[in-house]
Amino acid sequence: MTDQTIVRKATAGREGILIALGSSLTIMGSVMVAPMLPKMGQEFGPLNPDAGTLLPLAVTGPALAIALFAPFAGWLSDRLGRKAMLIIATILYALLGALPALQTDLNDIVISRFLFGCAEAVIMTCCTALIADYWHGEERFRFVNFQVVSIGIVGSIFFVIGGVLGEESWRTPFYLYLGPLLLIPFMAKILWEPKKNREHLPPADPDARVAFTPLIVGYLMILGGMVLNFIVPVQAPALLVAIGVTSTTKIGLSAGLGLLATLGGSLTWPLLRRLIGLYGCNALLMALLAVGLWLLASANTYNDVLFAVCIHGIGAGIMVPNVMASVMNALPDAVRGRGIGGFTSALYLGQFISPIIVGMIIGITQTDLVSAITYLACASLFVSALWIVSKLFVGGSAPVNSDSAV
């Protein structure tokens, strides 16, 4: 083992923490804005006749940008390297994230949020690709889980902080986006570029091929899962207002609690993966999402909502590491950035189309928001049943502890 290899091993903890913090920036992209929608509506509603359409885009617009830009970001990262792109994107994230605090036109805010989403696409794609580059086997599983746990912690904290700061002005929370500038010097010093350090990584397999079936299934799972997952941050505020809860602090606390609950799912995922496998985890998480959404649609009090988002959050906490592990294992080194870019695109496309699908269900069925959420809960339960059947007849003996797991 060379001295340089020893250095790489010794700094793995710092690298993991830094990548996890970088990944957490993407959840901050939406969680600090959602509690502000009611106050933004009060300011811009009377001035802009399209405010009803534009305001949700302030939350979901970045998700659309990520969905569109992430594959290109992955392609670039395979060619130009991850580290430099991650540093540049973090700088743009901070500047574009804080920009709405200074803007007075809702259309300009939506545009700046879209550009902000492009920076998020690079950050998420590069951070996830670096995890797959730096770690392998069980070590990779641990860092995938560590990434998701960190996102849950940071997201829940900033959801509450955003709600508290927004009590006085909806503009104030946007200044928090400048905080990631503090990560730049640490990224420059600690992270290293895999393409320039191949001798410190396991040798690449020249015959490795993309496992298309688990890759496509993973894309579909994260797409549909995010449609269900994003119902809480986007639709829960409206449900809370309908039962008389209008405080941005309480609204932020409810969504923050849901994110915090993802930690329960993420922390138990390694044990669940060993006990019931990836297929079994998919069945369980879809069932938990279904129960959480049904309870949310049935909620009559603030405490009912808190309980619902907790159940929902546990399922969401299992989903991301479980699906991400399958996708990583399906990708050889040569196309990892592009493949993870596709995963990132599917993840955020699901977030973006979530309110669109809810609106379509309301329009088609001529019902209300509560009924639409109930229909989606039933769809989630149906997918859970499909995974149970798959585990019984297909995946019962599938390996779950190696890089070949699907």
TrEMBL record:
Q: How does it sit in the membrane?
A: Multi-pass membrane protein
- PANTHER family in UniProt: MAJOR FACILITATOR SUPERFAMILY, VACUOLAR BASIC AMINO ACID TRANSPORTER 4
Q: Which domain of life is it from?
A: Bacteria
Q: Which residues cross the membrane?
A: 16-37, 57-77, 84-102, 114-132, 144-162, 212-232, 238-263, 275-299, 305-325, 346-366, 372-394
Q: What are the protein's GO molecular function terms?
A: transmembrane transporter activity
Keyword line: Membrane, Transmembrane, Transmembrane helix, Transport
Q: Does the keyword Transcription regulation apply?
A: no
The identity of this protein, by name, is MFS-type drug efflux transporter P55
Record's keyword annotation contains Ribonucleoprotein = no
Q: Mind telling me which Pfam families this protein's record contains? A: MFS_1
Q: Which gene encodes it?
A: tetA
Locate the Major facilitator superfamily (MFS) profile domain: which residues? 15-402
Report the GO terms under cellular component.
endomembrane system; plasma membrane
Q: Where in the cell is it found?
A: Endomembrane system
Species this protein is from:
Marinomonas gallaica
Query: Which Gene3D superfamilies does the record cross-reference, listed alphabetically?
Result: MFS general substrate transporter like domains
